[in-house]
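[job 4417] fold queue: 2 targets
>>> target A
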Amino acid sequence: MPHFLRQRAGMVSAMFLLAFPGCLFVRTSEHIITVKANGGGEGIIHLIDIRSTAPSDSLVKRDFDELMNAYGAATVEEFESYGRKITGKRLRVLGDTLMAEITYTFSSLGAIDGLRATKDEMTLTFAPEREVTRTNGKKSQTEDGGTLITWERDAERLVYEVWEKQIPSSTSLAPLYMKYLR
Protein backbone atom coordinates (compact mmCIF):
# COMPACT_ATOMS: atom_id res chain seq x y z
CA MET A 1 0.00 0.00 0.00
CA PRO A 2 1.48 3.37 -0.94
CA HIS A 3 2.87 5.52 1.88
CA PHE A 4 1.44 8.83 0.72
CA LEU A 5 -1.95 8.52 2.35
CA ARG A 6 -1.65 9.02 6.07
CA GLN A 7 -5.17 7.79 6.75
CA ARG A 8 -4.40 4.13 6.43
CA ALA A 9 -7.11 1.79 5.50
CA GLY A 10 -6.71 -1.70 6.74
CA MET A 11 -10.38 -1.00 6.39
CA VAL A 12 -12.50 0.38 3.62
CA SER A 13 -11.68 3.97 4.46
CA ALA A 14 -10.14 5.98 1.71
CA MET A 15 -9.50 2.94 -0.41
CA PHE A 16 -10.24 4.94 -3.52
CA LEU A 17 -7.49 7.45 -2.81
CA LEU A 18 -4.95 4.71 -2.14
CA ALA A 19 -3.95 4.73 -5.77
CA PHE A 20 -3.25 8.46 -5.82
CA PRO A 21 0.39 9.51 -5.75
CA GLY A 22 1.84 12.35 -3.71
CA CYS A 23 1.39 13.35 -0.08
CA LEU A 24 -2.36 13.29 0.37
CA PHE A 25 -4.14 13.12 3.70
CA VAL A 26 -7.84 12.56 4.39
CA ARG A 27 -8.98 13.81 7.78
CA THR A 28 -12.34 12.03 7.97
CA SER A 29 -14.01 9.24 6.05
CA GLU A 30 -17.62 8.16 6.25
CA HIS A 31 -18.77 4.77 4.97
CA ILE A 32 -22.26 3.49 4.27
CA ILE A 33 -22.42 -0.10 3.08
CA THR A 34 -25.68 -1.79 2.15
CA VAL A 35 -25.45 -5.60 2.16
CA LYS A 36 -27.84 -7.76 0.18
CA ALA A 37 -28.86 -11.29 1.19
CA ASN A 38 -26.48 -12.79 -1.41
CA GLY A 39 -23.45 -11.01 0.14
CA GLY A 40 -23.18 -8.38 -2.58
CA GLY A 41 -24.26 -4.80 -2.19
CA GLU A 42 -23.50 -1.11 -2.56
CA GLY A 43 -21.22 1.31 -0.80
CA ILE A 44 -20.71 5.03 -0.47
CA ILE A 45 -17.47 6.56 0.77
CA HIS A 46 -17.29 10.23 1.74
CA LEU A 47 -13.73 11.50 2.01
CA ILE A 48 -13.88 14.72 3.98
CA ASP A 49 -11.07 17.26 3.99
CA ILE A 50 -8.58 16.03 1.37
CA ARG A 51 -5.29 17.80 2.04
CA SER A 52 -1.65 17.79 0.98
CA THR A 53 1.12 17.31 3.53
CA ALA A 54 3.72 18.62 1.10
CA PRO A 55 6.03 21.26 2.62
CA SER A 56 5.90 23.90 -0.15
CA ASP A 57 3.33 25.57 -2.40
CA SER A 58 4.88 24.06 -5.53
CA LEU A 59 4.69 20.55 -4.07
CA VAL A 60 1.11 21.13 -2.90
CA LYS A 61 0.25 22.16 -6.48
CA ARG A 62 1.97 19.03 -7.78
CA ASP A 63 -0.06 16.89 -5.36
CA PHE A 64 -3.24 18.55 -6.58
CA ASP A 65 -2.31 18.03 -10.24
CA GLU A 66 -1.54 14.38 -9.57
CA LEU A 67 -4.83 14.02 -7.69
CA MET A 68 -6.76 15.39 -10.66
CA ASN A 69 -4.84 13.23 -13.17
CA ALA A 70 -5.18 10.10 -11.06
CA TYR A 71 -8.93 10.59 -10.63
CA GLY A 72 -9.31 8.78 -13.95
CA ALA A 73 -9.10 5.30 -15.42
CA ALA A 74 -5.98 3.92 -13.72
CA THR A 75 -7.38 4.60 -10.27
CA VAL A 76 -10.72 3.08 -11.20
CA GLU A 77 -8.94 0.01 -12.55
CA GLU A 78 -7.02 -0.53 -9.31
CA PHE A 79 -10.12 -0.01 -7.15
CA GLU A 80 -12.12 -2.41 -9.28
CA SER A 81 -9.40 -5.08 -9.26
CA TYR A 82 -10.57 -5.96 -5.73
CA GLY A 83 -14.04 -6.95 -6.90
CA ARG A 84 -15.74 -3.58 -6.65
CA LYS A 85 -17.34 -1.58 -9.45
CA ILE A 86 -17.42 2.21 -9.27
CA THR A 87 -20.83 3.58 -10.16
CA GLY A 88 -20.14 7.25 -9.40
CA LYS A 89 -17.51 9.67 -8.17
CA ARG A 90 -17.38 13.36 -7.62
CA LEU A 91 -15.30 16.04 -5.98
CA ARG A 92 -16.87 19.06 -4.32
CA VAL A 93 -16.00 21.92 -2.03
CA LEU A 94 -17.87 22.92 1.09
CA GLY A 95 -16.42 26.10 2.56
CA ASP A 96 -12.66 25.54 2.57
CA THR A 97 -12.92 21.74 2.54
CA LEU A 98 -12.36 19.47 -0.48
CA MET A 99 -14.43 16.30 -0.36
CA ALA A 100 -14.88 13.27 -2.55
CA GLU A 101 -17.79 10.88 -2.86
CA ILE A 102 -17.32 7.44 -4.36
CA THR A 103 -20.23 5.08 -4.91
CA TYR A 104 -19.62 1.47 -5.81
CA THR A 105 -21.10 -2.01 -5.93
CA PHE A 106 -19.57 -5.30 -4.85
CA SER A 107 -20.49 -8.92 -5.48
CA SER A 108 -19.18 -10.37 -2.21
CA LEU A 109 -18.19 -9.18 1.26
CA GLY A 110 -14.61 -10.23 0.46
CA ALA A 111 -14.36 -7.16 -1.78
CA ILE A 112 -14.68 -4.84 1.23
CA ASP A 113 -11.14 -4.11 2.41
CA GLY A 114 -10.62 -5.22 6.02
CA LEU A 115 -14.13 -6.58 6.58
CA ARG A 116 -14.11 -9.98 8.27
CA ALA A 117 -17.31 -12.02 8.07
CA THR A 118 -18.11 -15.19 9.97
CA LYS A 119 -21.41 -17.02 10.19
CA ASP A 120 -22.33 -14.92 13.24
CA GLU A 121 -20.85 -11.46 12.72
CA MET A 122 -18.98 -8.94 10.58
CA THR A 123 -16.07 -6.89 11.98
CA LEU A 124 -13.68 -4.08 11.10
CA THR A 125 -10.58 -3.18 13.12
CA PHE A 126 -8.97 0.27 13.27
CA ALA A 127 -5.52 1.26 14.52
CA PRO A 128 -5.17 3.34 17.71
CA GLU A 129 -4.26 6.41 15.61
CA ARG A 130 -7.80 6.52 14.27
CA GLU A 131 -11.02 7.21 16.11
CA VAL A 132 -14.38 5.76 15.16
CA THR A 133 -16.65 8.75 15.75
CA ARG A 134 -19.93 7.20 14.62
CA THR A 135 -21.21 3.73 13.80
CA ASN A 136 -24.36 1.64 13.86
CA GLY A 137 -22.29 -1.33 15.02
CA LYS A 138 -20.98 -2.17 18.46
CA LYS A 139 -17.61 -0.58 19.33
CA SER A 140 -15.03 -2.19 21.59
CA GLN A 141 -11.36 -1.58 22.28
CA THR A 142 -8.66 -3.90 20.95
CA GLU A 143 -5.65 -5.02 22.99
CA ASP A 144 -3.43 -2.44 21.27
CA GLY A 145 -5.84 0.45 21.94
CA GLY A 146 -7.51 0.35 18.55
CA THR A 147 -11.22 -0.01 17.86
CA LEU A 148 -13.19 -3.05 16.77
CA ILE A 149 -16.62 -2.56 15.24
CA THR A 150 -18.93 -5.58 15.25
CA TRP A 151 -22.20 -6.03 13.39
CA GLU A 152 -24.58 -8.98 13.43
CA ARG A 153 -24.03 -11.19 10.37
CA ASP A 154 -27.50 -10.38 9.05
CA ALA A 155 -27.00 -6.59 9.27
CA GLU A 156 -28.19 -4.97 6.07
CA ARG A 157 -26.44 -1.63 6.59
CA LEU A 158 -22.96 -0.95 7.95
CA VAL A 159 -22.28 2.68 8.83
CA TYR A 160 -19.14 4.14 10.34
CA GLU A 161 -17.15 7.36 10.38
CA VAL A 162 -13.45 7.52 11.16
CA TRP A 163 -11.11 10.45 11.72
CA GLU A 164 -7.43 10.83 12.34
CA LYS A 165 -6.51 11.67 15.93
CA GLN A 166 -3.37 13.56 14.92
CA ILE A 167 -3.45 15.93 12.00
CA PRO A 168 -0.09 16.58 10.34
CA SER A 169 0.81 20.00 9.06
CA SER A 170 -1.10 20.19 5.79
CA THR A 171 -2.76 22.42 3.22
CA SER A 172 -6.36 22.24 2.05
CA LEU A 173 -6.71 21.44 -1.65
CA ALA A 174 -10.10 23.19 -1.84
CA PRO A 175 -8.72 26.53 -3.15
CA LEU A 176 -6.85 24.76 -5.95
CA TYR A 177 -9.97 22.79 -6.88
CA MET A 178 -12.04 25.99 -6.98
CA LYS A 179 -9.42 27.57 -9.25
CA TYR A 180 -9.43 24.40 -11.41
CA LEU A 181 -13.21 24.71 -11.89
CA ARG A 182 -12.95 28.28 -13.25
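>>> target B
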Amino acid sequence: MNLRTILSILTATASILLVSSTTALAAPVLGGPADGARLATPLPKFTWTVPAGEVNVRLVIAPTKVVATDGTLRDADIQSPTAPGATSFQDLKEVYTPGDYFWQLNSDNGSASQETYQYFTSPIRRFVVPAIFQFSRLRPVVEDNAANGMNEIALTGKLRCNVTKITSVTMLVYRGTKLLHNDTREVGCYAWEQNNLFHNFQPRPGQIPNGTPLRIVMVAKSGIFRSPLTTLRLTWRS
Protein backbone atom coordinates (compact mmCIF):
# COMPACT_ATOMS: atom_id res chain seq x y z
CA MET A 1 0.00 0.00 0.00
CA ASN A 2 1.59 3.24 -1.11
CA LEU A 3 1.58 6.57 0.73
CA ARG A 4 -1.10 8.08 -1.51
CA THR A 5 -3.49 5.19 -0.75
CA ILE A 6 -2.83 5.52 3.01
CA LEU A 7 -3.48 9.28 2.93
CA SER A 8 -6.73 8.72 1.01
CA ILE A 9 -7.92 6.21 3.63
CA LEU A 10 -7.04 8.55 6.51
CA THR A 11 -8.80 11.48 4.83
CA ALA A 12 -11.93 9.43 4.22
CA THR A 13 -11.90 8.17 7.81
CA ALA A 14 -11.52 11.71 9.18
CA SER A 15 -14.42 12.84 6.99
CA ILE A 16 -16.63 10.06 8.34
CA LEU A 17 -15.72 10.94 11.92
CA LEU A 18 -16.38 14.62 11.26
CA VAL A 19 -19.78 13.93 9.74
CA SER A 20 -20.66 11.59 12.60
CA SER A 21 -19.70 14.16 15.24
CA THR A 22 -21.62 17.00 13.64
CA THR A 23 -24.78 15.11 12.68
CA ALA A 24 -25.15 13.43 16.08
CA LEU A 25 -26.41 16.72 17.49
CA ALA A 26 -29.31 18.68 16.08
CA ALA A 27 -32.07 21.00 17.17
CA PRO A 28 -34.51 19.75 19.82
CA VAL A 29 -37.68 18.21 18.41
CA LEU A 30 -40.93 19.74 19.67
CA GLY A 31 -43.82 17.49 20.70
CA GLY A 32 -46.84 19.44 21.90
CA PRO A 33 -48.65 21.76 21.73
CA ALA A 34 -48.81 21.37 17.97
CA ASP A 35 -48.31 24.43 15.80
CA GLY A 36 -51.54 26.46 15.74
CA ALA A 37 -53.15 24.36 18.48
CA ARG A 38 -56.12 25.85 20.33
CA LEU A 39 -55.84 24.67 23.90
CA ALA A 40 -58.62 23.54 26.20
CA THR A 41 -56.75 24.60 29.33
CA PRO A 42 -54.86 27.73 30.46
CA LEU A 43 -52.18 25.43 31.92
CA PRO A 44 -50.39 24.09 28.81
CA LYS A 45 -48.08 21.10 28.97
CA PHE A 46 -45.00 21.19 26.72
CA THR A 47 -43.30 18.04 25.46
CA TRP A 48 -40.16 17.45 23.39
CA THR A 49 -37.19 15.21 22.66
CA VAL A 50 -33.54 16.23 22.63
CA PRO A 51 -30.70 14.40 20.84
CA ALA A 52 -28.28 12.59 23.16
CA GLY A 53 -25.35 14.75 24.19
CA GLU A 54 -27.23 18.03 24.35
CA VAL A 55 -27.59 19.84 27.66
CA ASN A 56 -28.75 23.18 29.10
CA VAL A 57 -32.17 22.81 27.50
CA ARG A 58 -34.32 25.91 27.92
CA LEU A 59 -38.02 26.35 27.23
CA VAL A 60 -38.77 29.79 25.78
CA ILE A 61 -42.30 31.25 25.55
CA ALA A 62 -43.21 34.65 24.16
CA PRO A 63 -46.40 36.60 23.34
CA THR A 64 -45.01 37.76 19.98
CA LYS A 65 -42.97 36.13 17.24
CA VAL A 66 -40.02 38.50 17.31
CA VAL A 67 -36.86 36.57 16.44
CA ALA A 68 -33.29 37.58 17.36
CA THR A 69 -30.35 37.11 15.00
CA ASP A 70 -29.52 33.74 16.58
CA GLY A 71 -33.00 32.39 15.80
CA THR A 72 -34.38 32.62 19.34
CA LEU A 73 -37.56 34.34 20.45
CA ARG A 74 -36.53 37.78 21.63
CA ASP A 75 -39.47 39.08 23.69
CA ALA A 76 -39.75 36.01 25.87
CA ASP A 77 -41.94 36.14 28.98
CA ILE A 78 -40.66 32.77 30.16
CA GLN A 79 -37.16 31.34 29.78
CA SER A 80 -37.14 28.24 31.92
CA PRO A 81 -34.23 25.82 32.28
CA THR A 82 -35.55 22.26 32.25
CA ALA A 83 -34.39 19.43 34.49
CA PRO A 84 -31.63 17.21 33.06
CA GLY A 85 -33.19 14.51 30.91
CA ALA A 86 -36.67 16.05 31.11
CA THR A 87 -38.98 15.66 28.11
CA SER A 88 -41.94 17.68 29.38
CA PHE A 89 -42.82 20.74 31.46
CA GLN A 90 -46.04 22.09 32.96
CA ASP A 91 -46.26 24.96 35.44
CA LEU A 92 -49.54 24.60 37.33
CA LYS A 93 -49.08 28.06 38.84
CA GLU A 94 -48.63 29.91 35.54
CA VAL A 95 -52.14 30.65 34.21
CA TYR A 96 -52.18 31.78 30.58
CA THR A 97 -54.69 34.51 29.80
CA PRO A 98 -56.49 34.55 26.41
CA GLY A 99 -54.19 35.19 23.46
CA ASP A 100 -51.59 33.83 21.04
CA TYR A 101 -48.26 32.50 22.30
CA PHE A 102 -45.06 31.22 20.68
CA TRP A 103 -42.63 28.64 22.02
CA GLN A 104 -39.35 26.92 21.21
CA LEU A 105 -36.47 25.05 22.85
CA ASN A 106 -32.81 26.01 22.97
CA SER A 107 -29.94 23.70 23.88
CA ASP A 108 -26.17 23.31 23.52
CA ASN A 109 -23.54 20.59 23.66
CA GLY A 110 -22.18 21.68 27.04
CA SER A 111 -18.68 22.36 25.74
CA ALA A 112 -16.59 24.94 27.63
CA SER A 113 -14.39 25.47 24.60
CA GLN A 114 -15.31 28.17 22.14
CA GLU A 115 -13.93 26.06 19.30
CA THR A 116 -16.22 23.09 19.98
CA TYR A 117 -19.25 24.81 21.52
CA GLN A 118 -22.51 24.25 19.61
CA TYR A 119 -25.85 25.98 20.18
CA PHE A 120 -29.18 24.71 18.87
CA THR A 121 -32.65 26.25 18.48
CA SER A 122 -35.82 24.43 17.54
CA PRO A 123 -38.41 25.77 15.11
CA ILE A 124 -40.94 28.19 16.63
CA ARG A 125 -44.51 27.07 17.21
CA ARG A 126 -47.65 29.06 17.92
CA PHE A 127 -50.50 28.05 20.23
CA VAL A 128 -53.73 29.79 21.21
CA VAL A 129 -55.26 30.04 24.68
CA PRO A 130 -58.97 30.97 24.49
CA ALA A 131 -61.07 32.50 27.24
CA ILE A 132 -62.05 29.56 29.42
CA PHE A 133 -64.94 29.54 31.89
CA GLN A 134 -65.67 26.44 33.93
CA PHE A 135 -68.80 26.07 36.03
CA SER A 136 -68.66 23.26 38.54
CA ARG A 137 -70.88 21.88 41.28
CA LEU A 138 -73.88 24.02 40.32
CA ARG A 139 -76.72 23.00 42.61
CA PRO A 140 -80.17 24.52 42.10
CA VAL A 141 -82.32 23.84 45.15
CA VAL A 142 -85.88 24.87 45.97
CA GLU A 143 -85.79 26.11 49.55
CA ASP A 144 -88.37 27.28 52.04
CA ASN A 145 -87.95 30.92 53.01
CA ALA A 146 -89.17 31.00 56.57
CA ALA A 147 -89.13 34.79 56.68
CA ASN A 148 -92.17 35.18 54.45
CA GLY A 149 -93.39 31.62 53.93
CA MET A 150 -92.54 31.64 50.21
CA ASN A 151 -90.26 29.17 48.49
CA GLU A 152 -87.28 30.29 46.41
CA ILE A 153 -84.66 28.84 44.09
CA ALA A 154 -81.18 29.09 45.59
CA LEU A 155 -78.33 28.28 43.22
CA THR A 156 -74.79 27.84 44.50
CA GLY A 157 -71.68 26.64 42.74
CA LYS A 158 -68.17 27.43 41.59
CA LEU A 159 -66.68 29.26 38.63
CA ARG A 160 -63.11 29.56 37.51
CA CYS A 161 -61.68 31.30 34.45
CA ASN A 162 -58.46 32.65 32.97
CA VAL A 163 -59.53 36.25 32.27
CA THR A 164 -58.16 39.23 34.16
CA LYS A 165 -61.23 41.46 34.27
CA ILE A 166 -64.21 41.33 36.58
CA THR A 167 -66.61 38.65 35.38
CA SER A 168 -70.38 38.95 35.49
CA VAL A 169 -72.45 35.80 35.92
CA THR A 170 -76.09 35.84 34.85
CA MET A 171 -78.78 33.38 35.90
CA LEU A 172 -81.81 33.11 33.62
CA VAL A 173 -84.86 31.16 34.79
CA TYR A 174 -87.26 29.93 32.08
CA ARG A 175 -90.66 28.28 32.20
CA GLY A 176 -90.85 26.87 28.70
CA THR A 177 -89.77 29.79 26.51
CA LYS A 178 -90.92 32.45 28.97
CA LEU A 179 -88.19 34.24 30.90
CA LEU A 180 -89.21 34.47 34.56
CA HIS A 181 -86.04 35.85 36.10
CA ASN A 182 -82.78 37.54 35.10
CA ASP A 183 -80.18 37.97 37.85
CA THR A 184 -76.60 39.21 37.27
CA ARG A 185 -73.83 39.18 39.87
CA GLU A 186 -70.18 40.19 39.60
CA VAL A 187 -67.42 37.73 40.42
CA GLY A 188 -63.69 38.39 40.72
CA CYS A 189 -62.24 35.65 38.53
CA TYR A 190 -58.46 35.52 38.67
CA ALA A 191 -55.59 33.03 38.49
CA TRP A 192 -57.80 30.01 37.75
CA GLU A 193 -59.12 30.03 41.31
CA GLN A 194 -62.56 28.65 42.12
CA ASN A 195 -64.94 31.47 42.95
CA ASN A 196 -68.17 31.05 44.86
CA LEU A 197 -71.44 31.72 43.08
CA PHE A 198 -74.76 32.47 44.68
CA HIS A 199 -78.01 33.39 42.93
CA ASN A 200 -81.57 33.23 44.18
CA PHE A 201 -85.02 33.64 42.69
CA GLN A 202 -88.29 34.05 44.56
CA PRO A 203 -91.39 33.87 42.33
CA ARG A 204 -94.56 35.82 42.96
CA PRO A 205 -97.43 33.91 44.62
CA GLY A 206 -99.08 31.66 42.02
CA GLN A 207 -96.49 32.48 39.34
CA ILE A 208 -95.23 28.89 39.14
CA PRO A 209 -97.65 26.00 39.74
CA ASN A 210 -96.41 23.08 41.77
CA GLY A 211 -94.59 20.51 39.61
CA THR A 212 -93.65 22.97 36.85
CA PRO A 213 -90.38 22.08 35.04
CA LEU A 214 -87.93 24.98 34.95
CA ARG A 215 -84.81 25.60 32.92
CA ILE A 216 -81.95 27.58 34.47
CA VAL A 217 -79.30 29.00 32.17
CA MET A 218 -75.97 30.36 33.45
CA VAL A 219 -73.62 32.50 31.38
CA ALA A 220 -70.41 34.32 32.33
CA LYS A 221 -69.05 37.44 30.58
CA SER A 222 -65.80 39.35 30.90
CA GLY A 223 -65.12 42.15 28.45
CA ILE A 224 -65.38 40.68 24.95
CA PHE A 225 -65.33 37.11 26.28
CA ARG A 226 -68.41 35.04 26.96
CA SER A 227 -68.79 31.50 28.26
CA PRO A 228 -70.89 28.79 26.62
CA LEU A 229 -74.36 28.47 28.10
CA THR A 230 -74.66 26.06 31.02
CA THR A 231 -78.19 24.68 31.40
CA LEU A 232 -79.76 23.09 34.49
CA ARG A 233 -83.25 21.66 34.89
CA LEU A 234 -85.40 21.18 37.98
CA THR A 235 -89.03 20.77 38.98
CA TRP A 236 -90.58 23.52 41.05
CA ARG A 237 -92.09 22.39 44.35
CA SER A 238 -94.32 24.95 46.03
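[job 4417] complete. Note on B: The helical segments are 3-23.
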